[in-house]
Amino acid sequence: MPIRRLAPLVVNQIAAGEVVARPASVVKELIENAIDAEAIQITVEIENGGRDLIRVADDGVGIRFDELSLAVATHATSKISDADDLAAIASLGFRGEALASIAAVSRMSVVSRPRDAEGAGRIDIEGDRTIEPRPAPGPPGTTVTVRNLFFNTPARRKFLRSDQTEATRVSETVQHLALGHPQTGFTLTSGARRTIDLPPRQERRLRVLAVLGGELDDELLELDVTQREIGIWGMVGKPAIARGTAKHQQVFLNGRFISDRSITHAIKEAYRGLIDPGRYPTIVLFIQIDPSQVDVNVHPTKAEVRFRNQAAMHGAILSAVRDCLRRADLTPALDLTSVGSPREAPLIIPGPPRAFGSGLAGAPPSASYDSARQFVEYFRRLDPKQKGFVYSEVKEALAEQAPELLIDDDAKPQAAQDVEVLPVIRPVTDVLQIHSSFIVTQDEEGLLIIDQHALHERVMFEQLADAIGKGNLESQRLLMPETVDVDATQIELLADLGPLFVRIGIEAQQIGPASIGINAFSSFLFERGVEPGPFIRDLLDRAAREGVNDDPEAALHEVLDMMACKAAIKSGDKLTAEEITELLKQREKVERSSNCPHGRPTTLHLSIQELERQFGRR
Ligand code: ADP
Ligand code: MG
User: Fold this and answer.
1) 61 CB less than 6 Å from ligand 1?
2) What does DSSP assign to residue 576?
3) For ligand 1, is residue 44 a contact (CB within 6 Å)?
4) Dist. CA 143 → ligand 1 center (Å)
5) Cα 390-393-395 angle, rounded to 5 deg
6) Ligand 1 mean position to 96 CA, how many Å?
7) Which ligand lies nearest to the CA atom of residue 79 in the structure?
8) Ligand nearest to the CA of 142
9) For 56, 87, 355, 603, which has the most beta carbons within 10 A of its beta carbon?
10) Is the shortest distance between the CB of 31 and ligand 1 below 6 Å?
11) Please, which residues have CB within 8 angstroms of residue 263's CB and are 6 or more apart in sequence?
12) Which ligand is the nearest neighbour of the Cα of 110?
């Protein structure tokens, strides 16, 4: 074949291969243009995952009528003018190829009106056919409409996944950009559904919570430092909310979502020892540096960057995140001093405490009236009816135990005669349930405080893991199939989750455009009173939010985790004496009973030595 120059359309299609891989990449380029145009509100619409239609409308500065043709031409940009500008790029775009590339692989129209212009102009391009700019109606700002993406590049089209998967990717893209630009409002409409709606001029903390989920508020530590000209603001997730995927680990550099190995590494280092190495923290970092300190022109989609001083960046991130985590108290230590805090004050008797055990009678009130004492007093003085804990007949169980726990050396022989040696698990009469949430009991070394939900969750998890090791979980048919309303993304996820459902004994399928029917449900969950509908909806919600782990074992682990949580006794459940006894028995049996499946402790231990120390006996 002779050498020949490729036709411009082919050149652009080749270029499009780099920038426009799928609907989400079109959305990314168009939103970036809108942000560069100082838009306050950006409206994104897609049909069929963006395959049939993508429309991004903004209220930014607009494009002048006489520049419309240039805007869609290749290598035409208003953002840089010479090579020197490449050294310090402050805008998101600069390559001048997005519009041309998109136009080469779709039917595209641009309608734009500069803020001070009388009316809008419109240009249409379809492959290599261009309809020249002409006046058209339109509000100030720019609307780019992209129809039939890849209509002329079937090879590309074949690489697209299902509409729902593409829609999910678009949604993730909008979320990334929205996180990086809290000053801008974003809406996303997919088909008939509004899936994202974020107001403009949002405070960045609120924007992060709006995107990641407001329920994480208490789990995120705020980070705000500037060192060596690197500004870092972020929301740093406590180890407890680490995930099985890296999706909730997001880094923005000067407003641009980036993936950078060295930053990822620094984050991982900062969390070392705090989370399982196979898991990823939830963390959103916004890094601000002088644009001349970073080269963003190393990757067509600009997802990767090169720092002038990579070591400084690595060090800054590592120390910032590590210090932030260090400052926060993440250790499940029993904080005795907090018992005397004002919040707990009403529960503490004012003035000198009453004598506790014989050994304490006449002890100087102020010296020994410390937190440990208050702690024990706290338990002693709880009115069973008021506080809602069930310790059966023996109302002063702990008070009775107090002499044994608190007795001083002189009195010990005396007390020892009265108190028989206790077995490790004591009868339930020596157990308190506190505020329907915690169980207090003792072992040979001291006092145990158990989080009933966390412990039971671990018990449930171990039982499930055990059962699944032997085969698929037992399934129970529903007399009447239960219908759940879901959205398109979730229907798509149903297919991904299919194999998992089989393993956990769930049978569900799509029965309408926006509904699924559940025919069979896990017997285990049934027995624990978990309702099929809400469970499946939660599971799909979570899958939509966090994605389904590509690793089937990890995905199964995550679902078992969720099942365990749903099946477990809740905080706030009043337990009968039998239930408490049973739970404590299970505690002895299951492995890893010290931590719940998420790594949180199930039990806090207060040793006799510590009590003695607190009472100034040592
Ligand atoms: P780049 O963003 O790299 O400059 P594009 O092909 O994305 O290249 O856009 C070309 C030019 O068209 C931009 O430089 C800008 O001047 C103009 N433009 C594109 N989209 C918009 C928009 N939404 N609002 C205003 N101007 C726009
Ligand atoms: Mg651009």
Assistant:
1) yes
2) -
3) no
4) 12
5) 70
6) 7
7) 1
8) 1
9) 56
10) no
11) 251, 285, 287, 313, 314, 317
12) 1
Contact 79, 94 (CB under 8 A): yes
Query: Distance between CA atoms of 283 and 318, rounded to whole angstroms?
Result: 13
Give the residue, by CA position, lying nearest to ligand 1 atom 16.
78
Whether 62 is in the pocket of ligand 1, judged by its Cβ within 6 Å, is yes
Q: What is the pLDDT of residue 438?
A: 93
Show the DSSP H helices in 384-480 as ranges: 384-387, 397-406, 412-418, 452-469
What pLDDT does residue 492 have? Answer: 83
Give me ligand 1 centre to Cα 234, in Å. Answer: 30
Residue 142 Cβ inside 6 Å of ligand 1? The answer reads yes
Please report how many Cα atoms fall inside a 13 Å half-sphere around the Cα of residue 419, on the Cβ side.
Answer: 21
Q: Looking at the whole model, is its pTM more than 0.90?
A: no
Q: Which atom of ligand 1 is nearest to the CA of 144?
A: 23
Q: What is the pLDDT of residue 394?
A: 30
Residue 95 in contact with ligand 1 by CB distance below 6 A: yes
**Cα(266) to centroid of ligand 2, in Å?**
30
Split the chain (618 residues) into runs of 10 and give each run's mean pLDDT. Answer: 84 76 94 96 97 97 94 85 78 85 94 94 90 94 96 88 92 93 96 93 93 85 90 92 86 91 90 76 94 83 84 92 80 40 27 29 30 41 36 36 34 34 44 89 84 91 88 91 86 86 92 89 92 90 82 83 91 88 85 70 83 82
Tell me how far apart the alpha carbons of residues 320 and 307 are, in angstroms, rounded to a whole number: 18
Domain with CATH 3.30.230.10 in the chain: 204-327
Sheet holding 515-522, edge to edge: 475-485, 515-522, 507-512
d(CA 429, CA 302): 65
**Which atom of ligand 1 lies nearest, measured to the CA of 56?**
23
pLDDT at 613: 83
For 45, other C-beta atoms within 10 Å of its C-beta total 18
- Please state which CATH number belongs to domain 204-327: 3.30.230.10
Nearest to 357 by CA among 171, 608, 27, 153: 608
Q: How far apart are the first and last CA of the chain?
A: 94
Query: What does the alpha-carbon distance between residue 80 and residue 103 come to, in Å, rounded to a whole number?
Result: 22
Distance CA 337, CA 334 (A): 9
Full strand arrangement of the beta sheet holding 41-47: 129-136, 120-126, 107-113, 141-147, 53-58, 41-47, 185-190, 193-198
- Name the closest-CA residue to atom 13, ligand 1: 77
Compute the distance between CA of residue 372 and CA of residue 615 in angstroms, rounded to an integer.
Answer: 7
The CATH architecture of the domain made up of 8-197 is 2-Layer Sandwich (3.30)
Distance 3 CA to ligand 2 centre (A): 32
Domain with CATH 3.30.565.10 in the chain: 8-197
Residue type, 301: T
The residue whose CA has the least distance to atom 25 of ligand 1 is 62
Q: Quote the pLDDT of residue 58.
A: 98
Query: Among 18, 36, 70, 296, which residue has the most ligand 1 atoms within 8 Å of its CB, making it the best to mutate?
Result: 36
Q: Pairing relation of β-strands 220-227 and 230-237?
A: antiparallel
Atom of ligand 1 nearest to the CA of 34: 23
Query: What is each CA distance from 274 to 222, 242, 365, 403, 454, in whole angstroms?
Result: 18, 10, 41, 39, 18
Residue 59 in contact with ligand 1 by CB distance below 6 A: no
